[in-house]
Amino acid sequence: MAYSGKYTVKNKNKYMGDPSQVVYRSLWEKHAFKWCDSNPKVQRWGSEEVVIPYLYEVDKKYHRYFMDLVIEYTNGQTLLVEIKPDKETRPPTGARRTKRFINEAMTFVKNQNKWEAASEYAADRGWHFQIWTEKELTKKGILPKAIKPLKPYSRKKK
């Protein structure tokens, strides 16, 4: 998911903030932006327009959390959205005391701290907070369904 680039907003009147400065940091975000931009049930939306302070338990310092999406629906509901791979929503598994495990554990703690702050921030305003993984993005029709892999080629014997 190392794809990033500038997103061209089609419906500039729907975008909160400067529509010429919208950056996606993954293809999943790009698809979500396109969905928000074209969805008639989305009145307004923004990317990284909401910044939430959170306390990171590891270094005991406050940091800033830039929300992937803020969506205002035509029904009046406002939603804060974080787009993450499903594997990053669960505690790490595997051999402990490896560099990989430690990095994944620290990322998991940081995400938990961010999501707790985002949930409280949203609740204080009467909004909702959700994490959209590849599973939710596919269910919502935001991501294209995976293409069935081709069967391996096998040569017929004569």
Notes on the structure:
- The protein is 28% helix and 23% strand.
- The strands form 3 sheets. It has a 4-stranded mixed beta sheet. It has a two-stranded antiparallel sheet with strand order 1-2. A two-stranded antiparallel sheet has the order 4-5.
- The chain has one domain: Trna Endonuclease, Chain: A, domain 1 (3-Layer(aba) Sandwich).
- The protein has 3 helices and 8 strands, in the order ββαβββββαβα.
- The protein is globular and about 50 Å long.
- The chain is of the alpha+beta class.
- A hairpin with a 4-residue loop joins β4 and β5.
- The chain has helices at residues 27-38, 99-124, 134-139, and strands at residues 5-6, 23-24, 42-46, 51-56, 61-66, 69-73, 78-83, 128-132.
Architecture blueprint of SSEs:
Blueprint (H helix, E strand, L loop, with lengths): L4 E2 L16 E2 L2 H12 L3 E5 L4 E6 L4 E6 L2 E5 L4 E6 L15 H26 L3 E5 L1 H6 L19
Parallel strand pairs: 7-8
Antiparallel strand pairs: 1-2, 3-6, 4-5, 6-7
Main CATH class: Alpha Beta
Helix count?
A: 3
Radius of gyration: 19 Å
How many DSSP-defined strands?
Answer: 8
The poorly predicted ranges are none
Task: Output the keywords.
single chain; 158 residues; alpha+beta; Trna Endonuclease, Chain: A, domain 1; 4-stranded mixed sheet; 28% helix
Task: Please sum up the structure shown.
The chain is α+β, with helices and mostly antiparallel strands and 158 residues long.
